[in-house]
Amino acid sequence: MLYLLPKRYFILILLMYACNNTAQGQIRQIEQELRGLSSIKDNVTLINSLNRLGALYRTRNADSCFYYGIKAKGMAANIHYQKGQTEADHSIAFAFYKRGLYAESLDLFGKILSQYQQINDTEKIILVYLDMVAVMNKGVSDRAKIISLLQKTIQIGQKLKKDSIMSKVYAHYCLRNPALPQDSIHYYMNKSNEIASRYKDETMLTYNRLWQGRLLISKGRLQEALTLAKQSLLEAKRIGNTDMLINSFFLLTELYENNNNNPKKALEYLYQAYEAAQKNGDSSLEIYILHNALEVAEQLGDKDEIIKVYFELDKSITAEWEKSKKFINDYVAYNAVQDQNKLLSEKNAQRALWLLIISFSSAMIVLTIYLMMLRRDRKAKAQIEALNDMATVQIMAMEEAKHQAVKEEQQRLGQDLHDGLSSSIAAIRYQLETLMIDTSDIDLKRKLDVLQKETENAYKAARNKSHEWFSAADEQLEQSFEKQIILLTDSSLPNNRYNKNIHIDNSALSGVDMDTRIALLRIIQEAITNIIKHAKAKNVSILIYEEDENLLLTINDDGIGLDEKKSRNGNSTMGLQSIRRRVQYLNGEIEINSNIKGTEIIITIPIVIN
């Protein structure tokens, strides 16, 4: 009976369910993970999610913990994801413990421990130690080894920067060490409380309160223990922690059964603990509670209560049996995964040779393709470099022509200045000299003299400027724009590979300034670069003509076409972006039509009449 259970056994049940997250929080996390599984595409992310589910189910359902552990382990083994395999083994080992496979559990925990030690994950090492202690306490019951392992855990925990887990370690040390003196119990429980308070761990704070209540019972301070038990019950309900709720009911049951001699009230609390266990989904805990309830009902001699407990006990045992059958199926699947891993290891040597042959063949194929692409890329680069060189030459020629036009305009202005303005100033100067001779007024002569000097200065300035402009550089011939385009395309698009059709209406360019011609040449250069690099065309056409006071430039090729979606979204090649910027600078518009039959670029630029 529960009221006859030894003190340490009662606290064992207490701690088994006290050191976990709240039930409501677990349910929310489980639902969130399950919703996200179907949308995960990456294997590593999926394995990590399955392992999180396994960890969340540790205290809720051992079979689900085992199921997700096996699923994660199988996937992780296939892709050689060691971290995923280790975490999956942790869930599997815990499920073994919950199902009574203590030897298998300890063996697997030992392997997991060595893997965590290799990566120096101190917190995971402590978790494994705590799990091993639980297994040894339930199966082996080697008290000296358990205490030694917990002492080692405390020593390791001193290295942790974030030591929240040490609250559980100190509590476990008090629980598993029945020979611990009262002052040592108070010391370690105070350390547990201090850490739990620092990290605001309500679960451990409530657990420690229950432990304190248990100590008060042992000292006969029943009223204080009852107050703490009821306070813990309210706190467990407030934070929604089902495990703590059950343990509060346990403590109240012991108080009313042992010390208040009120088995009926104790039975009521056992029923409430059973309802909470049903919500938690742990059928093994349900059975444990019902066995205790049955003994209390038999003590009361209430046949109706005894029948009621038997009915509920039968349901829980049936449910546990169904879970056991499912566990057996999962265990078979686990062994199949283990066997598969062994077979894979045996086949690795044979596969290595084939992989070497396949890798060598693949490398040769890739190398051949690379050399072919490199050869083609070099040809394209040579064409583009030739195009750039020729375009640079043409631009320099056009800049020189532009400079020459400026010089010619300066010469014309110099001639006009010399023939017109200088002659007029010379006539004014002559008239002023005549007036100075004819007048006898001294004051007027002085003013005329000043005016004559200023006129002399103006005459010299006009004559000097006309001579400066008139002495400009010698005249230089300008190549026609059509010849420049033909020279540019011939150098970059050889006749043996491309058919070219170039027509430029020179009359359409009569009102076009030199800056616009340079921009047009650059646009054509960029378009030809794209044709060489991407189009794989055979026929190229370039037309320039006038239509409705607009200058039209069309460039056509019969290549593979552009990605229309990218072109619409602005994700075009650098060449097309450069063309768009130049057209925008000329206040023009651009239209690009492209399909599998080729590409057409139509550029419209307004003609400005000077």
Fourth-level CATH superfamily of the domain at 481-606: Histidine kinase-like ATPase, C-terminal domain
> What is the molecular shape?
elongated
Number of helices: 21
Structural class of the secondary structure composition? alpha+beta
Reported for the largest beta sheet, the result is: 5 strands, mixed
Broad CATH class of the domain at 481-606? Alpha Beta
Which CATH architecture of the domain at 481-606 would you pick? 2-Layer Sandwich
* Unreliable residue runs: 1-22, 472-479
Report the radius of gyration as a whole number of Å.
48 Å
Listing every helix as H and every strand as E from the N terminus to the C terminus, the arrangement reads HHHHHHHHHHHHHHHHHHEHEEHHEE
First-to-last CA distance: 111 Å
At the third CATH level, what is the topology name of the domain at 481-606?
A: Heat Shock Protein 90
